[in-house]
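Before the break, one more example. Copy the sequence into your notebook; we will annotate it together after we see the structure.
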Amino acid sequence: MNDKQDNINITEQDIFNYVFCPEILKAETSKLISGDSSLYEAIAFYKQMKSDAEQKPDINLKKKIAEKIPAYTLSNVITLYPLKLVQPQKRKANRLVAASTELKPQTSTKTFVDSPKEYLIKVLNYGETTKVFVFSTKDEVVKDFNIIIEPQNLEYHLDDNSEPLVLDKMIDAESIKIKFDS
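Here is what the structure looks like once it is written out:
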């Protein structure tokens, strides 16, 4: 090392800044840290910390935190909105008119997702029956929750998502909320 580098003291704060906000470090300090193999372990520690901090915790971790820290309040309602699918343009074709003026499709489906896309709900209407399927995009079993269908404000409880909710009526939902019991 030359005399100029000997005068630079690398602190734990410098290593932290090297990983989390390198733009505030002097170029000399940054170069010294990157070239010092004895600091690789500390750098790796902070890089792992940064990576962990950037990942959003799943609902189970949030529940555990809420149980341990009274000041942490868990938002227990997740709102899902219809997924907008791009429909291919239909070709114009001749259609035959049926004798009945009240033609309704026998089956229709609608998919709902939340903004971080952690949950997906599929509503399948067929005849006078509706099935509501709840999925976790993380392949988790969703337990002990209510489904609230808006705007009708219909609320149904499910112990888990292993079976669909079956309703003896058709529903037309604008949004669906998943509410976890706390």
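Confidence is low (pLDDT under 50) at residues 1-5. Strands lie at 77-82, 107-113, 119-126, 129-136, 143-150, 154-160, 165-167, 175-180. Try to locate both features in your own notes.
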